[in-house]
Amino acid sequence: MYCGIVDVNRYPKFSYYMMQSMRNKDIDQKGLYKGAMVFIASENSSDTLASSSTEITVFSNCDKVKLYRNNKLIGQQTRAERTQHYAPIVNKGGSPCYVFNAGSYEKGCLHAEGIIDDKVAAEHSVCTPEAADHIEVIINEDGVQPVADGSDMIPVYFKICDKNATRVSTSSATIKISVFGEGKLIGEGIKRIAVENQKVEGGVGFAFIRTTKQSGKITIKASSENLKTGSASIKTKPFSGRYVKDASDVKYSGNEEDNVIIEKAIDLTEQVARKPKIEIEKIDVTSSHGSYPSHNLIDGDDKSWWIAGNDTFAQVITVELKSKTKVFASRLLFQKDSASYRHKVETSTDGQTWQPFYERECTGWEFKPMMMNREIKYMRITIEKVSEGRAGMGEITLYGE
């Protein structure tokens, strides 16, 4: 996923540390973080990656950052120097990014130092991974002892590492997960989930372990061909609460996979894409910018825009078809994904009497088709407000039966 600061398994991405760098360097919060931080946003693994050679980004909230490769100084940058590139962020209390050019790639270790008052306040190193050697099992407990209540879930990561404990980010090894003691592997035995025999991504695998109702030790092991097996353990504490009575007197019989039918669901977007597009005869708008005419709304190109000729609202777009036509669905694409557009859509068969279709506020990201299923000759889009800039749209598409 390109969005978010952690992946679907809550494993931190580089952007996680970028957000960390926005913290105040003078504030420590015991058990959570120390104020000063520095992080190298690079795998340092290939000469094909700019992040390993010419655009090595370091996140830090310190006053100065020094970056070394194999004990040789690549460069140093101050917060003041980098602020000119990130002034809006720094002015809000955040931190700039520190970007270094090493000229070329070289295997070894990158080492960053965060400097405050001419003293090293934080350090971080990233070494080029060698051949995969073993599996590390990491129980992500965050200081929270799991409870033996039969439902508490423990997140566990499985990292493919080289002999130096560096994660091998290029590994897609298949690992086998086994759980012993007072815990159960969630999804075990369900083929479509494929958790106990899983292929790691970016050198990392993941699983949830559920506690039993008996407190005690849980051991998680992970093995893979040609790799040393990894293992970790955790203890659960007794449950002191009260259970809600369940239907334990009625025992489930059968296998998880019995009578399971997996069908590929066809979503609305796929369904609409198979429908014929309806030709639009005419389009009228309240106003148009000279470089962004109304014809761009119906030229079949999402990246050509209509933009209003002035800043006033409401801006109205009226679409006319050749004749009354049964419309299956409509698709509206607004100009900017970062802006929100409050608008309403109406339809008409005669251009005089208008029937509401919908009224909502959305961003330019929300351009999935809307089911219409009505006969129309005209469609009217009224843009009532935009969070930033002028009214603008990329494309209007109507689909027939």
What is the string of SSEs from the N terminus onward? HEEEEHHEEEEEEEEEEEEEHEEEEEEE
User: Which blocks of ≥5 consecutive residues have pLDDT under 50?
Assistant: none
**Got a strand count?**
24
Beta strand %: 35-45%
Mean pLDDT: 93
Helix content: under 10%
| C-alpha-based Rg, rounded | 29 Å
Given helix and strand content, the structural type is: mainly beta
Shape: globular
Q: How far from one another are the termini?
A: 34 Å
**If helices are DSSP runs of H or I spanning 4 or more residues, what is the number of helices?**
4
**Biggest sheet details:** 7 strands, antiparallel
SSE order and pairing:
Layout: H1 14-20, E1 38-40, E2 56-60, E3 64-69, E4 72-78, H2 79-83, H3 87-91, E5 97-100, E6 109-116, E7 119-127, E8 134-139, E9 147-148, E10 153-161, E11 174-181, E12 183-185, E13 197-199, E14 204-211, E15 217-224, E16 227-235, E17 237-238, H4 268-273, E18 280-285, E19 306-307, E20 315-334, E21 340-348, E22 355-363, E23 370-386, E24 392-400
Parallel strand pairs: 9-17
Antiparallel strand pairs: 1-2, 2-5, 3-4, 3-6, 6-7, 8-10, 10-14, 11-13, 11-15, 12-14, 15-16, 18-20, 19-24, 20-23, 20-24, 21-22, 21-23
